[in-house]
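[Meeting: bench + compute handoff]

Bench side (C.D.) handed over the final construct sequence. Compute side (W.E.) agreed to return the predicted structure before the next meeting so the bench team could plan truncations. Sequence as handed over:
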Amino acid sequence: YQFFVRLTTSVLNHRTLLAYFKKITLNSSLILVWVFLTALLNYIPRPSHICSRGLLWLERYLFDIHTHQSIGAVTFLLCIASASWLLARHYRITPVYEPEYTSKRTFLHPEPIYPIAPILPISSCTSSGNTLNSPTSSFQLSRTTSPILEPHDFSSSTSDLTIAELDDAFVIESHFSEKGSCRPVNCWNLAPPVLLAMSWFIINILHSFSISLSKVLNIVAWVFYVVLHFTIPPFIGAWLYFFHPPGALKLYALSIGAQNILVVLTHFVIPTAPPLFIKLYGEHKVPSFEMTYTDGITRQDMKFGSSMYRYVYYAIPNKFASCPSIHACTSSLVFFFVCYYSRTSIFKLMAMVYLFGQWWAALYLDHHWRFDIFAGLIYSIFVWTVIKTWKNGLNRIDSRFVSARSNADLINGTTMGMRIFKHTRIQNLFDPLASISK
């Protein structure tokens, strides 16, 4: 019973049940709009022309450097390198969102200013004979644990804690990145421009591994393309909700919804046929929506002699939705969120495996061209850049979290996992400001 009460209060976080469901609906509004648009595609008049040979020509012109048309691939590589450099410069010039500390409190922080560090108990600081109250004392902050305002309970409001009690409870080592913007510990801020710079080579390497066929590879491709595509994005949403600042899940849901809406609108305006259409009907066959055509996912039926995937495919509203790849969009955006928020490099490498597995499966199943993968990456980078530079985006959320923590706001300064496992040994596991051992 006590665990159920704690779980309920942690989820609601001083909100009513109605307000909680209202917030969930607003946060997932763009995803609901995307689902609604997808369901309406069969009832909206579509363009009569479906692009098939155009993507084949673009594929060869931009990615095949060993042919006589290598000038297109070289120019494409130069454009990618220039865009990556400009994007990296833009990411370094981030908006300044400094935490808003209360005027009644003073915080000890050495100069120069460093990235965000955990909130630490005052007992963990040593000063080599000087007291911490001395503004000129030199001290070392321990990087072990970060208990939160013990023995106070998370359910108590900030008004129950006096300024003297807070000053005796902890100090803050300021860890601000350049330009004053708050960033999580071990943040790979330049992951999008680096991935963009290497995308041409990665896509070509994955394409070379998608040529050889086997039943084992069929199963692996199906796991990545179907199972993980539907399970990993919700898992990342739960991970953001339990381990990271309030508002991170909101931005994740809004970015997924906005990205998918852009992809669906592109599929509606410019319908495109995948590679398997060319392999089945040739380059000169004119595609139409009335054809009983099956796309790349039904390649499993062709190899295993079943009709399961074909039945699933016929229920999909838009059968000519090759460019951009929604699998590439979703996996790229998931990778960006993990690179930004994850404190452990192992989890980021796992997200990289998921990303490359999605790209490879899309090429292996002949569901997408190489250009479709690159276009999906561009869509996700665009959405990610918007939520980073938006005034209520990632920088603002991280800044507000540090501010709430500094001002002992236990409603806005704690994660879901911290509230559930408060005053336990694993509380710091859910604290994004807690240090991790190397």
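W.E. noted at the follow-up: The first helix runs from residue 2 to 12. C.D. will use this when planning the next construct.
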